[in-house]
Each structure stands twice: as structure tokens, then as C-alpha cells.
Write a structure and sequence with these properties.
Elements (H helix, E strand, L loop, with lengths): L2 H13 L3 E2 L6 E2 L2 H152 L2
Antiparallel strand pairs: 1-2
Length: about 180
């Protein structure tokens, strides 16, 4: 029997089975029955205490396990939070590096574009200058050739004129000579 039942039985022996002495607060009980019940109560106490100690021990073990589990959960949560924070940091760093690279590439592309535009403009100006220089050179050469051609033609015409003048004189002399020979 449990301790509670043993104590109830003890109460019954005193209250129900005992004889009340009138006009007093006293009761006569069977000593042997009382001692037997007290012995049963006494024997129940160690079982009850052991049971209570087991419950207490189990309670402490359960609480200890619960605390350990709670600590493990907290540690796991903290580790996961740290991992997530690390991942977020990595993601943020990657995004920042990506933006930096994007800006750098855009800047480099713009620099290359400006350089290409400048180079194309420089080549265009240089080509235009070369074309202008070639045009001037060609025009100067054309003028020189024209002048040389004009001089040559002038020279040829002068020589022709001189020859024709000489031939005209020869013809005139020949005619004069003919006329003077015919008159004689």
C-alpha cells in the first residue's frame, strides 16, 4: 500500500476503531493494532521516499536534459544565425563587388569609347590633313606641269616662229633673187 493509504488506515484505527472516553478528548486504541499500523507506515515511508527521490531525480534529469536540449537549440540557433549572417555578408560583399565591377567595366567601356572616338577623330583630322596636303601638292604639281607645258609650247611655238621667219626670209630672198635674176 502507498503511504497515503497506510496513514488513512492509521486514522481509522484511532478514530473509528478506538473507544472515546466520555468528557475527555482521549481515545483508547488497540495497542497491537496501532503498533502494527505504525510499522506498516514506517515501512511505506522508505518506499515512498525512494519513489519521491526517483521522481525528484528523474525530474532533475528531465530538467537537466531539457536545459541541455535548450542550450543545444540556442547554440544551434546562434550558429545558424551566425551562418546566415556570414552568408548575408558574403552575399552583400558579392553584390558590392558586382556593383563595383559593373561600374568599373562601365567606366572602362566609356574610357575606351571616348578613346576610340578621340582616335577616330584624330585619324579623321589626320586623313583630312593628308588629303588637303595631297590636294595642295597635286594642285601645285598640276600648276607646275601646266606652267612647264605652257613654257614648252611657248618654246616650240617660238622655235616654229623662228623657223617660219627664217623660211619666210629664205623664200623672200629666193623670190627676190628670182626677180632680180629675171630682171637681168
Amino acid at each position: 500500500m502507498e503511504l497515503q493509504q497506510q496513514l488513512q488506515r492509521l486514522e481509522e484505527i484511532i478514530v473509528l476503531d478506538g473507544l472515546k472516553i466520555p468528557l475527555t478528548q482521549r481515545t483508547i486504541v488497540d495497542e497491537e493494532q496501532l503498533l502494527s499500523q505504525l510499522l506498516a507506515v514506517e515501512r511505506s515511508i522508505p518506499d515512498t521516499i525512494r519513489s519521491a527521490e526517483n521522481i525528484l531525480h528523474n525530474k532533475e534529469e528531465i530538467i537537466s536534459r531539457a536545459n541541455q536540449y535548450a542550450q543545444e537549440l540556442v547554440q544551434s540557433a546562434e550558429q545558424r544565425a551566425a551562418q546566415i549572417a556570414d552568408e548575408l555578408t558574403i552575399i552583400q560583399q558579392a553584390e558590392m563587388e558586382g556593383q563595383h565591377l559593373r561600374k568599373q567595366v562601365q567606366s572602362e567601356v566609356e574610357t575606351i569609347r571616348q578613346r576610340n572616338i578621340s582616335e577616330v577623330e584624330r585619324v579623321r583630322r589626320q586623313t583630312q590633313q593628308e588629303i588637303d596636303a595631297m590636294r595642295q601638292t597635286t594642285q601645285a604639281e598640276c600648276e607646275q606641269i601646266q606652267q612647264e607645258a605652257d613654257r614648252y609650247v611657248e618654246q616650240v611655238l617660238k622655235e616654229l616662229e623662228d623657223r617660219l621667219g627664217h623660211m619666210t626670209r629664205v623664200v623672200q630672198n629666193g623670190r627676190s633673187h628670182l626677180h632680180s635674176s629675171a630682171g637681168q
